[in-house]
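Mods, move this if it's the wrong board.
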Amino acid sequence: MFVKPEFHSGFGRPDILVFSRDPGLALIIENKVYAGDQEKQLERYWNLLRNNFNFAGHRTALLYLTRGGRKPKNHRDIPKAVQYFPMGYRRHIAEWLRGCTETTPGLLKPILLQYTAMVGRLPAEPEKEDGEAEEG
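Not the wrong board. Structure tokens:
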């Protein structure tokens, strides 16, 4: 298993790339806590997964991680072939961390609990341009 932060490629620089040849899998996590979207970013990262990690077959995922789990601002412009999953720190990551603390031994458990509390205190997503509140 390989984890590459800020992976440099001809398709851009995804925040986190995880891949393994055995078992074949590839995952890109694009972290959007305070950063804006780049032009065709998710489309480029999807192409990176498809073109460079074909050993993973159907075991690929592109995660779009924001504070509350919102979709990208330009989600209507993203081609249907680009499969991505909006996820949120306040919902998905905090829930996952709470589950991890149940089985975490020793000194790591208080650290996970502290991180879980911090994730839960992230401010809500900014409002959409049309005035509607974001998901979360």
